Amino acid sequence: MNLNHHFLIAMPQMGDPVFSGTLTYLVQHDEQGALGLIVNRPLNLNLEEVFESSELSGYSPRTGSKPVYHGGPVAQEQGFILHPPTEQTWISSLSNEQLVLTTSRDMLEAIAQDEGPERFLFCLGYSGWSPGQLEEELKENAWLTVEANEAIIFQDDEVGKYQHALSDLGIDLATLSGHGGLA
């Protein structure tokens, strides 16, 4: 099972408050484990504050007003930038061919100057699973999966992202049961 470029949609019975109600984009999933970013949990923080704490001046008001997201419980002090592939290569990047995860300061500087990718999501922290952990959680019906839709990732409606991903599966949130079974 390869879930690169898929969403994990937390089921209503998700007991972990970190992931309850979340939509997580899986950047990488293989025998080594999985790495993803929660894409629908904005923090009470915008990029202007990140630029200032990183001592970047002269930043664009357009990018400075963008929200910062809680990407997950791992490395919460580190910034992760999710974006479509660009012609420019960045110092520290992980790509799954559809989207790129960049952690380098050069990308943050480009975004501050409004010279980075047109569409991006800036997260603090990431979500990680050890080998076999995600597969076990899927067996326990903790998550639904669906191929990721970039329009959902980069839309401004954080609240609607979860519901839109469910809609891609043909599921209405109002009819989703918190109890799963095995066929």
From TrEMBL:
GO terms for cellular component: cytosol. It holds the Pfam family DUF179. NCBIfam families: PRK00228.1-1. Belongs to the UPF0301 (AlgH) family. This is UPF0301 protein MED297_14077. It comes from Reinekea blandensis MED297.
